[in-house]
Amino acid sequence: MLDDLHIHDFYRDAGRVLLAMFNQFPVPATVYVEDISGPDSPDEYGLHSPRHLACLGSMTWLKQSGYINFSQLVRQEAMEDAVLSHKGFLLMINAGAESGQSNAQLLNSAVREGSSGQLQALMERLMREFAAL
């Protein structure tokens, strides 16, 4: 079980971003932070919530780590021309050893129906697999 809520949120956000990119592949798309993390209500100064900013950080981390590419951030609202990297695409189409399902199918199930522990285990496996590609 995950002890740290921010890590659980990171795994869920990263999984949702990868799925969004896979479902649009190979067409670059604009991906809005709110589509991944849920609605945000900026404060009276226009500053986004910590949850929104954490999701934006997950998107940036995925790019910096080579999972996805995007041309630019649109303020703190979205990433523009976002697409899976070559290695990101290979990661998503590879089949899970036990199930025979693609990693995209496994991730879709884990994000939609799985427990935090299932999602954590899958995301950690995917990160190890990505590093080995």
Give an overview of the whole structure.
By secondary structure, the chain is of the alpha+beta class. It has one domain. Helix content is 57%, strand content 12%. Strands 1, 2, 3 and 4 form a 4-stranded antiparallel beta sheet that branches. Helix 1 packs across helix 5 and helix 1 packs across helix 6.
Number of domains: 1
Task: Work out the radius of gyration.
Answer: 15 Å
- Label the overall shape: globular
Task: Give start-end ranges of low-pLDDT stretches.
Answer: none
Please state the structural category: alpha+beta
- Strands, count: 4
Helix content: 55-70%
What sequence of helices (H) and strands (E) makes up the elements? HEHHEEEHHH
Average predicted confidence as pLDDT:
93
Number of helices: 6
Distance between the termini: 28 Å
User: How can the largest sheet be summarized?
Assistant: 4 strands, antiparallel
Beta percentage is 5-15%
